[in-house]
Structure formats: C-alpha cells, structure tokens
Predict the 3D structure of the following.
Amino acid sequence: MDYEKYMHRCLHLAKLGVPNAFPNPLVGSVIVHNNKIIGEGYHKTYGKSHAEVNAINAVQNQELLKSSTLFVNLEPCNHYGKTPPCTKLIIEKGIPEVVIGCIDSCEKVCGSGIKTLKEAGVKVKLEVLEKESLEINKRFFTFQKHKRPYIILKWAQTSDGFIDIDRSKEKYDREKHWITGKAAQQLVHQWRAEETAILVGGKTANNDNPQLNTRLIEGKNPLRIILSENEILKEELKIFKDKIPTIIYSRTNYNYVHIENVMLPEQDVLDFVLNDLYKRKTTSLIVEGGRKILDSFIQQKLWDEARIFTGNKEFQTGIKAPNINGETVSSYSIEYDKYQQLINK
C-alpha cells in the first residue's frame, strides 16, 4: 500500500479546516479498502465532529470498515471533550489498521490514543509524513507547548532597509510611500484570513489608520488587537467605525460596542498580552508593527516565524527595519517585491 499517497490526501483535507477548526488542530482522514478510498473527512469546525468520525460516516457500506485501513495525520483523541473519543469509534467499528502522521503532544492525548488502539488489537503504523504532519499543526503544537499563540512577525522594508519615513520631518503620502505592490498586499490579506488574530501598536494605528481586515480577498477577518501602552488612539480611526471584534490593550477605555478594553499592567506587557490571548484560545498571531512593537517581540525572543517583504523603493532616511536573526526557509519574488520567510531556531 502507498502509505504516503493516502497521508498526503489527509494533509490536503486537513487544510480545508482553516480557520474554522481553530483552536483545535487541522486534521484530515481517509479510509482505504483494497487500495481505494471509500470514505474521507476533515475537522471542519471547532466543537464539531472530528476528521475520523466524518471519514467513517462517509463510508456507505459500513461492513467494509472491518477490512479497511484508516489514515489520519494526527493521533486520534482518546478523551471526552466536546465530542467522544475517536479511538472508541475506531475500535467499535472494528477497523483493523490505523496509520498516523504524528503523535498529538496535547497532554490529554500524548500517546494514549495509540496505546488504546494497540491494546484493542488494532495495528498502528506511525510517522508517515511525520515532518509534514508536524508542520501543518505548528500553531497547535506551539500553543500547547509554550502556552501562547504561534507568533508571525510581518513587515515590508525598502531596498535600503527602511520600514517608514520620518513622519516628524516629512508628510506621509500613501501612494508615494507604500512599499509593496498589489500582489504582495493581496497575499498579506490571505495570511490574515488564515490566522486567529492580528496586532499593531497604537502609534501605527494612529499613523496609518489601518483596517486590519481581509477586504482584498474572501476570507474571515482575524481578531484585531491594538497594543497601546501610552498612545491615545484618535477617534477617527477606521477600527472604531466598523463592527469587527477588536481588543485594545492600553491604559485608556474606549467606549465602542465592538471594542473590548483590557487594562495593561505597568510591567511585563507582552507576557501579559500573550497570556491573556492564550486564555482566549488564540492559537496564532500576526504582528504587523510598528518598529517598537516588532523589536519588543524580537528582543524577548517571542516569535516563531518572520515574513519580510523588500520593495524596490528607497527612502534614504526614516525608520530602519528591525534586525532579526533566523533560518531562511523560503524566498522568492512577487512582482517587483522580494519575499523572505524566517523561522526562529
């Protein structure tokens, strides 16, 4: 049997769960009988049935399950939560073999699903496309291990290394000073739709008046977060005009229906924010600036991935781009812009 072929299909299905499966992991499952897929499914929505259940229910002739192999990219759950354990259903249906991409590091599972299946006489094959299975759920695993969201730093810089002009000396002109092209902008909006939340600082909110939404593509808006220790946000900001859920971490209250105010402590601000987001089950966070905010995350080593665009414009003076060290895992061109992806090793 071509194990990798069917696991690739699981991974493809799993990605269809973005973003509605969050904070649960992305999981896909297929059931194979005589080298033919007879059922498949994925975890569609948090709190609803898991991938294995959906795949099993998709099999028209349930008797075939007793001579089939179930593939799944993540170890089946073995506990009662919002749904019953998947191991229980697999055993009840008499499925003789289960192929698993990677172990679930969540303390409620962490090998217990595999143990339960084996004790029931189910043949278990592990680590098929393990690297790919770990990668697709890097947000979930980071959330479980570090008790914080998976953090993505994102910025655009000019070819001479600036992320902004000096606005105390020069008036900002969006058309003149926007660094990247339309293709890069659209890609950023796609990224926003794939993550749980997006964060900028209060100064960036006031300077750029961003919407922080997914208006350039069809996709779910992330939770918007403004971190503003001392900056007073202007009343005319676009974030105050719409109804997208927004949290403002500051020392000032803003009286808008869709805005939640969270008062900041005097110290350990980032730890406080990330701990609060963890309690809210925020599994991923894009940080889009500005320089002070980005530097804070970098200096405290609170980042997992950085996505950096370099445009073909030059500012010559202004706000320098952050300094960051990481392993380059991807780089390519988008129209006239260059893109680099780093991971924190």
The chain has a mean pLDDT of 94. The first strand starts at residue 28 and ends at 33. The chain has eleven helices and 16 strands.
